[in-house]
Design goal:
Length: 87
């Protein structure tokens, strides 16, 4: 029987014209997403999560257009910068 090993997860995001790409890796079974397993940022369109153990994961990401280090929201809590997530 083969055993599962840790691997890298590579994210490739296209058409990031400006800003910093922020991504978080979460356990797919987590009930809250306030404590990511790994966090990554960069100005390139490819980010890599290294040595991820076998399991089910979800990714949350956003483009920090104004480079202030956070996802900007409207007073109603809606994002004003590009944001996405997997399920």
């Amino acid at each position: 029987m083969a055993t599962a090993q840790a691997a890298d997860i590579r994210l490739q995001v296209e058409n990031v014209a400006q800003g910093v790409l922020h991504a978080e890796l979460h356990s797919a079974d987590a009930t809250r997403w306030d404590a990511p397993l790994q966090r990554m940022s960069g100005s390139r369109e490819t980010l890599v999560f290294h040595d991820v153990p076998p399991g089910r994961y979800a990714v949350q990401l956003f483009v920090d257009v104004n480079a202030n280090g956070r996802l900007d929201l409207t007073p109603r809590g809606l994002p004003t910068e590009p944001v996405g997530f997997s399920s």
